[in-house]
Amino acid sequence: MIDMVKSVAINSSSTVLNSSSAVLNSSATVLIRIKNLTKRYSNNIAINNISLDIFKEEIFGFVGPNGAGKSTLVSLLTTLIKPDEGDIIIKGYSVLNKTSEIRKLIGFVPQDIALYPTLSGYDNLKFWGGIYGLRKQELQDRIEEALSIVGMKERAHDKVEEYSGGMKRRINIAAALLHHPEILIMDEPTVGVDIISRQYIIEAIKNLKKEGRTIIYTSHDIEEMETVCDRIAIMDKGVILKCDTVEKLKTQSKDRSLKNTVLECINFRG
To answer: Domains in the chain and their CATH numbers?
Structure first.
C-alpha cells in the first residue's frame, strides 16, 4: 500500500495525429502535446515514436489489446516514469523536468484500488485530501463534493471492505477529484463493476467534462468508450494506428460499428 500511495498521490515512423480530420473544432485548445514519444523496457519497445495532441475539455480514449502500450502511456502521462526519447508537454510543462507542476494538474484513477480496506470511504478521502494539502473546512467540503459526484454519500461512513467492487471504484474516483484537477486520467475505471456503479461512473465522467475537465480514458469495453469518448486512439504494439472522433471511426467499418473498426484496424481474425 505504501508503494501505491507514492504512485497514486501524484503532489515505425512518427505521425502527428492533430490534423483537421481528428480535431473536434477549429478553436480547440491543445492541452497535452505528445511529441515523438518512445519508451523501452530492455529489448521491448512499449511506446514507439508516437505524436498526438489532446485538447482541452475533451474526453479522449485509448483502446487496444493487452500489450498495446496503453498502461505505459498512462504512466508516462502521470509522470510515474520518464520517456527514453521525446516529450510530453502538459499545459506548457514538460514531463522531463516539470513533474511537480504537472502533478498538481492531474488526478489519477489507477486500475488497482488505492484504498485502506479497514477505514471508511470518508476516512480514506480524508487521508487522500491530507496528501493533497487540504485541511479543515476545505477538506470537508471537497469530500462532500466528491462523494456527491460519484453517488456515495449514503455509504461514505461504511468500511471499504464492506463495499462492492463498484463502490470501491467510485471512492477511488472521488479520491482523484479532491484537489480539483484540470485533467483526470482514468485507467480501466469500470473494470469488474456492477451495472449501477458503471452508470454512476459514466454519468460522473460526462458531468466532469461539462465542468471543464479534460479526461483521458482507457478501457477494453469499446461500447462504453463509444458512449463516453469524443475521440479515440486505437493502439497496438506501441503505436497509434488510427485516431479520430468516434463518429468518423465508425464510418470506417462496413456496418458503422466502432468495435469492427477497432478489430479491423488491429487485423483481428476470429
So the answer is: 2-12+58-74+103-265 (3.40.50.300)
